[in-house]
Write a structure and sequence with these properties.
Helix content: 55-70%
Largest sheet: none
Number of helices: 9
Distance between the termini: 82 Å
Shape: elongated
Oligomer: single chain
Radius of gyration: 22 Å
Order of helices and strands: HHHHHHHHH
Length: 213
């Protein structure tokens, strides 16, 4: 005769995985195949989790993608905030561009560009939730550059006659150009040169020397 256990049944096991690690693997899979080209089977294989576990923890494919995108953008914002906090304006801008290049190349010779631009932009026109995240992120980057230039004006690093919105437009456009070129396989020296030329233009408009890097 088999005795029944008197222990109460478990009411649900706690998650046995690291959420950030799982989302990093999810991100890398979407980064490689794109949103439309990625299946839940691929995400399951990449994370080592069964599909029911992924559904239970994150929801459907779109919710999983948005969680990975949010994780990526939070990481980028934290790195950029540190770079923007550098006291000298042009050292700060150099560090921002280095953060961008590192993210776009991911330590490889064949870069993948910005995760958001590579994966979310193709979906933004047809998905309002993804479009909202893209718009918010782009506007956040613009605000960060604008605040940095306004701070430089307030601290006397660049003249008040300079339009900070114009300087912002130059470096935001440069940021996205570097992302596209990294995605197309351009190496670090090309991206660094693109960033340097954009910053030289900013320096020229601000009346600063262009050879003080």
């Amino acid at each position: 005769m088999v005795q029944k256990s008197s222990a109460a049944p478990a009411r649900g096991r706690p998650r046995s995985f690291d959420t950030d690690q799982v989302l990093a693997r999810v991100r890398d899979t979407f980064w490689k195949y794109g949103y439309s080209g990625t299946s839940m089977d691929q995400l399951s294989a990449a994370t080592g989790l069964h599909k029911p576990s992924l559904y239970g923890a994150f929801g459907d494919k779109k919710a999983l993608y948005l969680a990975a995108l949010d994780n990526y953008l939070a990481e980028v914002r934290a790195e950029f905030a540190e770079a923007f906090a550098v006291p000298n304006l042009f050292e700060s801008l150099y560090q921002v561009s280095e953060c961008s290049i590192d993210k776009f190349l991911r330590g490889t010779d064949a870069g993948t560009g910005c995760f958001m631009m590579s994966t979310a932009m193709p979906e933004a026109a047809k998905d309002p939730d993804i479009s909202r995240v893209v718009r918010e992120s782009m506007e956040s980057l613009e605000r960060a550059f604008l605040r940095r230039f306004e701070r430089a004006i307030d601290e006397g690093e660049i003249p008040a006659s300079v339009d900070p919105k114009v300087l912002t437009m130059i470096l935001v456009a440069n940021h996205y150009e570097m992302s596209g070129r990294a995605r197309a396989g351009y190496p670090r020296p090309v991206l660094r040169d693109l960033a340097d030329r954009a910053q030289d233009l900013v320096k020229a408009l601000a009346g600063s020397p262009t050879n003080d890097r």
